[in-house]
Amino acid sequence: MNNLKASPASRRIMLVAALALVALYVVPLWRISLKAPQYPEGIGLLIQIDNIEGVGPHDLKNINGLNHYIGMKEIVPEAIPELSYMPWILAVLIGWGLLAAATGKRWLLYSWFGVLVLTAVAGLVDFYLWGYDYGHNLDAEMAIIKIPGMTYQPPLIGTKDLLNFTATSLPALGGWIGILAGLLVGWRTWKEARGARRARATAG
After folding, report:
1. Total structural domains in the chain?
2. How many CA atoms lie within 13 A of 138 on its CB side?
3. Which helix (H) or strand (E) holds 30?
């Protein structure tokens, strides 16, 4: 039964990774920045696990004002359902990681890493679809500025020009913490799987 247990090093990594995810409740996951001649210092949005707010005190209001001119929907955090259940998903991930670290069971380590990756992919897909909806489904009657065929979807990752704005979308501190936690646990998962294969080969 000992070969079903993860190594002490893997259990410590699991513990650190799970506890690191707690930071996602207080630091932003993602940042979207906008620069233009009329905003030389830039304005932007911070996407948190349960909220969207401006980088500056009036950025969200200013961005919603700009969106009004091109017919985009107003960004209302309370109307985005994902922001209400993402904290619960994160809580499950943290609890799962702590359980894996406490019991040392390999299958919990493997499954936690798999679910973490699936959650990250699902989050990126959802973020892309959210941006697509806001950037493509425009209200032509409300729009003051109308450019046929023009859409305003921000980039998922990277930089993109939108009219006279340059939009940049990148992980914020919370995003980098999640990425680092995933990489560390992924590394230990690979080490554990390799060790298990060697143990079976030796026993055989």
Report:
1. 1
2. 22
3. strand 30-36
Radius of gyration of the chain (CA): 21
Residues, the chain: 204
Is the full-model pTM beyond 0.85? yes
What's the CATH code of the domain at 138?
Answer: 1.20.140
**Which domain covers residue 56, as residue numbers?**
2-203
Q: What is the tens place of the pLDDT at every residue in 44-58?
A: 999 999 999 999 999
- Measured at the CA of 18, the angle between CA 45 and CA 30, to 5 degrees, comes to 10
Comparing CA positions, the residue from 38, 76, 70 lying closest to residue 135 is: 70
Per residue, the 3-state secondary structure of 106-149, as one string, reads HHHHHHHHHHHHHHHHHHHHHHHHHHHHHHHCCCCCCCCCCCCC
Residue 98's contacts (CB-CB under 8 Å, 6 or more residues apart) are: 15, 18, 19
Residues 8-41 have pLDDT tens digits of 999 999 999 999 999 999 999 999 999 998 888 8
Element (H, E) at 196: helix 173-203
